[in-house]
Amino acid sequence: MNNLRSGTNWDYVLAALVWMLLLLPYAFYKSHRINILYMGEDIATGVGLSVQKERTILMAIAVGLAGACVAVAGSIGFVGLIAPHLARRIIGRDYRVVLPSSALIGSILVLVSDTIGRIIAQPVDIPVGIVTAAVGAPYFLYLLTRK
């Protein structure tokens, strides 16, 4: 059954699911290396990590996951910015926990934004991207002014 609001259907979700099933476990497997890279290049090299190779692999994983999500859901602004920052603030800096927490926080943010967009101006639906931008823009400005 087609979803007329976004022009997608379950076939797109199944196509993205393949990428998720391939890349998410690999991302979690590599999360301890993100912790090492976070300590700095010198330390990462000192413990035997090939910094450039790991960065390339991790970037490819991130691009693949983001691409699969955007292909299905469209560009939903600020979710990728807000969720990881909130997860690090709540959980800490251990990326073995931050990665799944970011996914959970991001999905909750999109779900709440969609619900607000459907309720706030009934019978018209406000697109989820507008609601997430309304939430994300002030948080983005807060992040900019904090540093």
Write the SSE topology:
Blueprint: H1 10-38, H2 41-46, H3 51-73, H4 79-91, H5 95-119, H6 128-146
Mean pLDDT: 86
In whole angstroms, the N-to-C terminal distance is 47 Å
- In one word, what is the shape? globular
What structural category characterises the helix and strand content? mainly alpha
Beta strand %: under 5%
Q: Point out poorly predicted stretches.
A: none
The H/E string reads HHHHHH
- H/I helix tally: 6
Q: Major β-sheet, in short?
A: none
Range of helix content: over 70%
Number of strands: 0
Radius of gyration: 18 Å
Count of domains:
2
Subcellular location: Cell membrane
Family: Belongs to the binding-protein-dependent transport system permease family. FecCD subfamily.
Membrane topology: Multi-pass membrane protein
Transmembrane segments: 12-29, 57-83, 95-120, 126-144
Describe the structure.
It is built from 6 helices and no strands. It starts with 9 loop residues before the first helix and ends with a helix. The radius of gyration is 18 Å and the shape is globular. By secondary structure, it is mainly α. The protein folds into 2 domains: 1-74; 75-147, no CATH class. The mean pLDDT is 86. 78% of the residues lie in helices and 0% in strands. Helix 1 (10-38) runs antiparallel to helix 3, helix 1 (10-38) packs across helix 5 and helix 4 crosses helix 5.
The gist of it:
Helices cover 78% and strands 0% of the residues. The chain is built from 6 helices and no strands.
